[in-house]
Specification:
alpha/beta; D-Maltodextrin-Binding Protein, domain 2
């Protein structure tokens, strides 16, 4: 029996056993490659179950805004939402999500990587199933590194990265030594600069929840970032997020890119990337203070409480985040293109272990500790975010101040002063 036939049979049996009538479910998701790839296989889910799927595909910042508004107002627009490690435990604690505590034995919840399951749970209950998990790492052009006469260490420092970026920059040929996120948004440029700041010794709050933007480590982070990007980054980096930098790298316009480990399959795919045969990988940089600048994240599927289509939604989540789905993609598109970072079994699979970025992805995920993300102690869980309800609004505003620095509209000191004042005001108003 083929994987496809087996998958259809298993899902159809689940449908019959569950007595679920055919539904049309609406899914809000992010416009990245893995989620768009999933949409291409949805007809197989429909054939197996009778359930139709309507997709609402949105840019990352817009997705966060739409699903947050919908769940807080009980709008009921979506039966499944694509959310992450920030929202899931908070929304689960509020009773806004359906617990995923009754998934089938075949689904094998225990196979989900502990870092991913932990980040998508509240009080030990899973509230979202990871479609893929990620950390962040360096992706670099091996040919340009060699041309520069340098060799990338497996665990480089920021000082080396800046030196290499300058050496690889070739303005006449439109090659930027490094491409990094500057785009406003707490999960876009905000996520990058927060993860980077951890490695410079910065933190969002001290143990009394006092904002820390008026400290030297934050100034050091921004001065280093802006200096390096001015020397070696692309013009207009203040508006570049994940997708913009992915396009630049695939077009051969970046020497290095530090971003989500999930991007590795895209930059090494010869159908999409002009530099697919000359990409290397390394851990995200540090400054010698004991923390690297990599994050931890999962894009996951969750069911808002109150949906009338809970049973059908659970069937879709089981299908889309299953071992069988991984095998389906592998059979059609090769192991390098399966959704990574969610299941232990994937990294035990000898075929997947041949994929050039598999080990570095897992090493990056395992090195990220959301319970101990900063050099000085901090009161929050999270690496590129602080897992408190107020964070998204505050960090969106702070990221806009930083983006204004990148665009040359204000100074670093001005941005940090505004960030400190705004965050202090919001945290006091929230009762911290």
């Amino acid at each position: 029996m083929s994987i496809r036939t087996a998958l259809r049979a298993a899902t159809a049996l689940a449908l019959i056993a569950g007595g679920v009538s055919a539904e049309t479910i609406t899914i809000a998701t992010v416009n990245n490659g893995d989620m768009i790839r999933m949409q291409g296989y949805t007809d197989q889910f429909t054939a197996a179950t009778g359930h139709e799927v309507e997709w609402v595909t949105l840019e990352e910042n817009v997705l966060r805004q739409r699903v947050t508004t919908d769940i807080t107002t009980k709008g009921g627009q979506f039966d499944i939402m694509t959310i992450g490690m920030y929202e899931t435990p908070i929304w689960g604690a509020n009773g806004w999500l359906v617990p995923l505590d009754d998934l089938s034995e075949d689904y094998d919840v225990a196979d989900i990587l502990p870092a991913m399951a932990g980040g998508l749970s509240h009080d030990g209950t899973l509230y979202a199933a990871p479609f893929y998990g990620e950390s962040s790492m360096i992706m670099y052009r091996t040919d340009l590194m060699e041309k520069a006469g340098l060799e990338m260490p497996e665990a480089p420092t920021w000082a080396f990265v800046r030196e290499a970026a300058a050496a690889m920059t070739d303005r006449e040929n439109d090659i930027n030594g490094i491409c990094l996120r500057g785009k406003a948004g707490w999960g876009e440029g905000g996520a990058f600069i927060t993860a980077m700041s951890n490695s410079f010794g910065a933190r969002w709050f001290d143990m009394d929840w006092k904002p820390q933007f008026d400290t030297q480590p934050w100034k050091d982070t921004l001065e280093f970032f802006v200096g390096m990007m001015s020397e070696s980054g692309p013009t207009g980096y203040a508006t570049n997020g994940f997708n913009e930098n992915l396009n630049l790298f695939q077009q051969g316009k970046c020497g290095m890119w530090i971003d989500a480990t999930v991007a590795a399959s895209f930059v090494t795919n010869p159908d999409d990337s002009t530099v697919a045969d000359s990409v290397g990988f390394a851990l995200a940089p540090d400054t010698g203070l004991g923390k690297r600048s990599n994050w931890l994240w999962a894009w996951a599927l969750a069911i808002p409480a109150g949906t009338q289509k809970e049973a059908a939604a659970k069937q879709f989540i089981e299908w889309a985040t299953s071992k069988d789905y991984i095998e389906l993609v592998a059979a059609n598109e090769g192991w390098a293109n399966v959704p990574p970072g969610a299941r232990t079994s994937l990294y035990e699979n000898p075929e997947y272990r041949k994929v050039p970025f598999a080990r570095m992805t897992l090493d990056s995920i395992l090195s990220a500790d959301p319970n101990n993300s900063t050099v000085e102690p901090s009161p929050y869980v999270g690496i590129q975010f602080a897992a408190i309800p107020e964070f998204a609004g505050i960090a969106t505003q702070v990221s806009q101040e930083f983006a204004a620095v990148y665009a040359g509209q204000q100074s670093i000191d001005e941005a940090l002063e505004k960030a400190q004042a705004f965050t202090t005001e919001e945290m006091e108003a929230a009762g911290y």
